[in-house]
Amino acid sequence: MRTETPPIVRLEDYRPSDHLIDRVDLDVRLDPRDTRVSATLSLRPNPVGRAGAPLVLDGDDLVLLALDLDGQAPPPDAYRADASGLTLHAPPQRPFTLRIETRLDPTANTKLMGLYRSGGVYCTQCEADGFRRITYFLDRPDVLSVYTTRIEAEREAAPILLGNGNPVEAGEIPGTGRHFAVWHDPLPKPAYLFALVGGRLDRVAKRFTTMEDRAVEIAVYVEPGKAERAAYALDAVERSMAWDETAFGRAYDLDVFNVVAVSDFNMGAMENKGLNIFNDKYVLASPETATDADYAAIEAIIAHEYFHNWSGNRVTCRDWFQLCLKEGLTVFRDQEFSSDMRSRAVHRIAEVRTLRARQFPEDAGPLAHPVRPRQYAEINNFYTATVYEKGAEIVRMLRTLIGEASFREGMDRYFADNDGTAATVEDFLKAFETVTGRDLSRFAEWYERPGTPRVAVSGRYDAGARTYRLDFRQTRPGAGADAPPLVIPVRLGLIGPDGPLAEATGDAVENGVFVLDGAEASLTFADVAAEPVPSLFRDFSAPVRVESDLDDAARLTLLRHDTDDFNRWEAAQRVAMRIMTAQVRGQDADAVAFVGALGAFLDAHALRNPAFAAQVLALPSEGDIADEIGTNIDPDAIFQARRDLRRRLGADLRARLTALREALSEPAGASFSPDAAPAGRRALRNAALDLIAAADAQAGIDLARAQIAAATNMTDRLAGLATLALLPGEAREAALAAFVERYADEPLVLDKWFGLQAMIPEADTVARIRRLQGHPAFAMTNPNRVRALVGSFSLANPTQFNRPDGAGYDLVAETVLALDGTNPQVAARLMTAFGSWRRLESGRREAAEKVLRRIAATPGLSRDVADIGARSLGG
Ligand code: B3K
Ligand code: ZN
């Protein structure tokens, strides 16, 4: 535990390593409390490093047992070693070998970084800086080495031994009950991609032949007894491999691809070369235990980690400032995959919902940072929505600007030019400059500046001249007048009273895209017969906030007639937002036209496209409304406005919603499929249930109970329970009790049960959570449990987290502090829930600030939590 102020790492201070490590030979003897690691490193001076510099190897919590240099123990004054590093004062100026022996206690490793045990399975997590908890090393992404790993363990405890690369040898150690396996990874990689696994696991596997004719054995390893729940993940790996070949021309490069699911994991999953390690929440699925959303997340995360094999592993990052180079790009790639597997428009809506829910607030608060940060105290705090989601939007804008064909050509060029290297954002952009001949230096500004840009748009129709003119103005919060304007692709079209007008064309609009690259710009359309409605930022063509002067009637025209499904959804969201924010501000919140338009929309489209209709019916969240209002936020007023509009919709559309539920019900005996079409039908039925229940509690209770009783899958069962969770009373408590009894042995389902209760918007929820923290199934050592109970509360229960008396803040603060000693990464992540505190009304703002100051003043904080505390309060 540290108390000193953490040092700041700066991009401008980057310099190449003074030494390189070409080969790493590891011998790992696994033992629950006394694991021995012998690392043989083949080192040499880096030709572009400083000649004669000392060799400074990173370490974290290490115990050095033995050291030799070219086979000899160095004299004691030749080096210095402690838990956090090993320095050779005057290393040889030629290639040399270091053998380092360290001792680890995987059972005591509660940080879940480095080598640890999860439910008896040995596993590793090395990104960003966990490898230094295994052995002393140059633990930086621009040091690439070829690894050979020998793993040894007791056969009974760990019959499965997995490493990076290909298996080369395995055998028994006679008379010891121990066995070993040797793995070799021929492709040089940074230490953060190292992994090993040892344990008792079940396996499902299939063969895949790549377009280069390589036979690959794909396998998914899970807790014994759960093999059939791994089938969907296995299938997703196969589909990802095939898709990356067709969509990006990328083939897999080893003989095996292994995925291992473990139950204690700090995040979603990790792309270790040839050996992806996953939080089991993103692998295990059965109709009885997983919702449609779970299946979709498994598909997306399996794809994401697999796609890293090229965008991240084959081409890695020069330093951690370039994190978006692999994360933003890989999110873009997994988004495209999911869009191809499912409905493109519906997936785009989901992407934008996530961006607005997580990235916009982050970018508007004290934790805002550029997509490529320039400095950090703790890199693990920068795996953020900005790096990932806004990073993906930048890649998407690039494709919009240069067109699909050039984009694909540029990607090919990027992979070809940078394969086997540690690259930068500049290398990425250069590939596209090379293939298009365009100068992307102004576009690159997107990587550098925090804050969500605003684009104000107004339109004017001149009936005499038959022209329609659009005026654009961009501003960036916090950016000075001299800040260069961003290059913003605006995909757009014009809609007439009865449908789309001829698609916008002309000098300034190419393939439906207008490029706004000045602070202000205008665009005039000629020969427009009647006043049109502009459809702006189609498909959400840029991550900006659009301020347009369209009224409800114009927006409802878009809902009816736009050819861009994203903007039809957006139109309904904007009108709903206008109604709810008006109510919060005490203004006229007339909803008549909206309700009428939604009714007509449902009549025309609900049965043809239920997944899309479900999205249109789902109002902006309380968080979205808060983000829209921006200052002086009162979560209770927001909650009421949203509840009132849900009630209104449920009451006025009751007959239609009831008919839809009937029409969309599954025929008895139908077998479950997690595919997009049946999932879309379930989504619309359940969206209808939510609105009916909002308007008529008794009907809601009856429908939800009937749905739970008849449910043949977790999606419908959980939707029924979620409906009841919002309706206080006996029925709710009985249903919760029945649920926990039924799933007592299913940790991932219990997470849903914890999460639902944490999200109940009622005054006694804090007390309920405190009770649940004492539930035998709750464990502070399991990140999924903590996120389910306390994370759901802080992120998805705005009225209770932001209680005026501060009791919600206290609960989260206590959890952050209790967790900090054992798992600082998860503690710091939980603490980011305070990130929007400055935007609250004054009473809550003061309460939140007090709690933040209390956390920040606690002695002995981890660097992770201290960093979030300092940044949340600063700025
Ligand atoms: N690269 C990992 C995230 C590592 C987080 C380290 N704190 C998973 C992913 O984005 O694919
Ligand atoms: Zn990733």
Oligomer: single chain
What's the helical proportion of residues? 40-55%
Ligand identities: (3S)-3,7-diaminoheptanoic acid, zinc ion
Give me the Rg, rounded.
Answer: 28 Å
CATH class of the largest domain: Mainly Beta
Head-to-tail CA distance between termini: 26 Å
Could you tell me the number of beta strands?
33
What is the structural class? alpha+beta
Low-pLDDT residue intervals, each spanning 5 or more residues: none
Which superfamily, in CATH terms, is the homologous superfamily of the largest domain? tricorn interacting facor f3 domain
Which whole number gives the mean pLDDT? 97
> Tell me about the biggest sheet?
7 strands, mixed
Beta-strand portion reads 15-25%
Count of DSSP helices? 26
Strands ordered across the widest β-sheet: 5-8-3-2-11-14-13
Q: Which outline best applies?
A: globular
* Overall tally of structural domains: 5
CATH topology of the largest domain: Immunoglobulin-like
CATH architecture of the largest domain: Sandwich
